[in-house]
């Protein structure tokens, strides 16, 4: 019964999108939820109890931050159900090896993060939280009523009891394992004829190309991008092929953080998480999120500093939701580029991923796909998918666009090494802008 109530409550919140109360009342509601959550966590998590010391619960914004390294270092004492890191790794690794993602520890689902930052993280989700997640996900992202029949195709590196929890008599859920060949997926997808396709942008791009070439004939009601940053170039190709807006889900080990409204604008899920904004130097809208998830108790996430860069929308969303609207998920803090200042001072110049993206895709309409990797302080490798007969001209246009960017930012032009675009394997997250060298 508790699980059913959690599902219904979060489904209702998801459908209402914050419209059920005015902004002032909503802020008071969130604050009460956070403080109540903090009291529970302090009582049941030995790690947090020591980490916060005697700071009053109402002053939770003064608590010290945590990150993935701290969470994993104190995993055993941080979670509230007594599951050890060794136990969780054993279950997660067995599931990865067998590709059978059903096993759990009691009623607790165990999962792995993708490890794009170089170190993988574990996550634990209790049965009540799982029901709440399913309710929130369906309430926010299902295009029709929960009572209508809907077929969902879900592409990801690994399945989970969490994802399977959306399955019901009216919801047909089919998991597509990215370790399997795409040709096999195209055949299965054609037979399924899904109403929803949920996949990383790199996979959606492949499906879009299959649609345009006639290898795939599907007419989904909604396309949802997950797991990777949705690049403007990929968005344009996918929307053209499917003839509809691409929606997004912003989710990671630390929680279900955001999703798009019916207008296709990404909003933070502020009915589930409280996100503080650590604005980056030189920007009034781009920030690093500090997450407190007041909907999770099994593995509490309190004042957890993510490694992501989000840019807040300049204008409010016409949907009317009070939830913060996000213009773009730019990427990871690890993928901020640095360059030598024009005057060769000791201070390095920051180039945010969005700057690089806009320079590349704005340089030429003939660029089909790209990747930019900073391999040294003043050296970039640029992968381009272009018509070779036009290669010289397009590369010169890209070089000029980057030169103009560097002049605007008053930094020295990097050495550019142009190579052919390499298709990213489906099990590895695509990062269009990536810094591979250590500062």
Automatic annotation (TrEMBL):
InterPro entries linked: ANL_N_sf (IPR042099), CapK_Type1_Caps_Biosynth (IPR053158), CHP02304_F390_synth-rel (IPR012685)
Gene3D superfamilies (alphabetical): N-terminal domain of ligase-like (3.40.50.12780)
Family matches, as NCBIfam families: aden_form_hyp
PANTHER family per record: CAPSULAR POLYSACCHARIDE BIOSYNTHESIS PROTEIN (PTHR36932:SF1)
The protein's name: F390 synthetase-related protein
Organism: Cohnella soli
């Amino acid at each position: 019964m508790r699980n059913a109530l959690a599902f219904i409550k979060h489904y209702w919140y998801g459908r209402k999108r914050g419209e059920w109360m005015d902004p002032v009342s909503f802020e008071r509601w969130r604050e009460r939820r956070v403080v109540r959550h903090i009291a529970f966590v302090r009582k049941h998590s030995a790690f947090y109890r020591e980490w916060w010391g005697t700071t009053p619960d109402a002053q939770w914004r003064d608590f010290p931050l945590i990150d993935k390294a701290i969470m994993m270092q104190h995993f055993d004492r941080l979670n509230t159900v007594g599951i050890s890191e060794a136990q969780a790794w054993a279950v997660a690794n067995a599931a990865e090896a067998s590709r059978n993602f059903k096993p759990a520890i009691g009623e607790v689902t165990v999962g792995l993060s993708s490890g794009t930052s170089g170190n993988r993280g574990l996550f634990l989700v209790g049965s009540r939280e799982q029901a709440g997640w399913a309710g929130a996900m369906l309430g926010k992202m299902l295009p029709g009523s929960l009572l209508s029949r809907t077929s969902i195709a879900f592409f990801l590196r690994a399945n989970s009891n969490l994802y399977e929890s959306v399955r019901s008599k009216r919801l047909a859920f089919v998991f597509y394992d990215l370790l399997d060949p795409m040709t096999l997926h195209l055949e299965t997808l054609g037979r399924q004829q899904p109403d929803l396709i949920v996949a990383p942008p790199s996979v959606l791009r492949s499906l879009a190309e299959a649609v345009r070439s006639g290898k795939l004939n599907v007419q989904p009601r909604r396309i949802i991008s997950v797991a990777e940053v949705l690049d403007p170039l990929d968005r344009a190709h996918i929307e053209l092929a499917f003839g509809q807006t691409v929606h997004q889900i912003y989710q990671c080990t630390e929680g279900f953080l955001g999703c798009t409204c019916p207008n296709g604008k990404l909003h933070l899920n502020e009915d589930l998480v409280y996100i503080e904004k650590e604005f980056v130097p030189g920007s009034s809208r781009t920030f690093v999120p500090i997450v407190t998830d007041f909907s999770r108790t099994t593995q509490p996430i309190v004042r957890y500093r993510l490694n992501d860069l989000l840019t807040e929308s300049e204008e409010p969303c016409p949907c009317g939701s009070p939830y913060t609207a996000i213009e773009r998920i730019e990427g990871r803090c690890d993928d901020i580029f640095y360059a030598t200042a024009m005057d060769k001072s000791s201070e390095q110049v920051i180039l945010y991923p969005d700057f690089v993206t806009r320079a590349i895709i704005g340089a030429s309409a003939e660029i089909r796909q790209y990747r930019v990797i900073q391999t040294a302080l003043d050296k970039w490798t640029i992968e381009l998918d272009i018509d070779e007969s036009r290669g010289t001209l397009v590369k010169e246009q890209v070089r000029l666009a980057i030169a103009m960017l560097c002049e605007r930012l008053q930094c020295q032009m990097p050495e550019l090494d142009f190579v052919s675009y390499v298709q990213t394997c489906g099990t590895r997250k695509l990062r269009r802008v990536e810094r591979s060298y250590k500062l």
